[in-house]
Design a protein that fits this description.
With 248 residues, the protein is mainly β. The protein folds into three domains: 103 residues, 3 Solenoid (UDP N-Acetylglucosamine Acyltransferase, domain 1); 102 residues, Hexapeptide repeat proteins (UDP N-Acetylglucosamine Acyltransferase, domain 1, 3 Solenoid), CATH 2.160.10.10; 36 residues, no CATH class. It is built from one helix and 30 strands. The protein has a ten-stranded parallel sheet with strand order 1-4-7-10-13-16-19-22-25-28, with no helix packed on it. A nine-stranded parallel sheet has the order 2-5-8-11-14-17-20-23-26, with no helix packed on it. Strands 12-15-18-21-24-27-29-30 form an eight-stranded mixed sheet, with no helix packed on it. Strand 29 and strand 30 form a beta hairpin. The mean pLDDT is 95.
Amino acid sequence: MISPTAIVSSKANIGKDAEVGPFCIIHDNVVLGDHVRIQPYCELGVETKLSDGSPLVVGSGSLIRSHSTFYEGSSFGESLVTGHQVTVRELTKAGKNLQIGTLGDIEGHCIIGDYVRMHSNVHIGHYSTVGNFVWIFPYVVLTNDPHPPSKVQRGCFLEDYSVIATMSVVLPGVRVGTHSLVGAHSLVSRDVAPHTVVAGVPAKKLCKTDKIVLQDGSGRPAYPWPRHFHRGYPDEIVELWKSSFGPD
């Protein structure tokens, strides 16, 4: 269903049972999958000279909440979910089941894997690469300019299952290893080894992640987190984790 107050280009490709809310603008270069829901006051497919001219593609079953803006040239797999007032620039390629929190800002030329979780007020700088099953908590910033302001851009790399805690900053070109944890309020200026906890300004190694114990009185290890945290993930993923990481 398309609201009578929405402006939807006749050139846009709208899937079956899609919903476009009041006062939305859907430009020419947009492909919406089946059962996509666009809440009021969103603008999708904004034209930009920085794009390669490819369409904005939003996968089936996605939900984009109100006052969000997506530029042309980006693509998202099925089941994208956003908060309110999200901005995504051109040439971002994301997998399925991405979650972007309210006021999230993803700059252009980013690569994002499957099942990534971004909380509110996260900034993903140009040329960032984010792996699968990554968690990024509120007010995290991924930077890209090693000596601002300049034309040099070096994106950050967050490997699979890494966790970046709230209000941390990752500096240009830094790689955060798989299953690692960056503690809150950290400034990450050097690569983080896999399965490692770092924290501080600048961030320093504290220990291996298997030394962290859940604060629920059980004494169980907190990492790798897929061993005990399954909320929001499909059964087939959880079963894979059980075979890979063992039962909780």
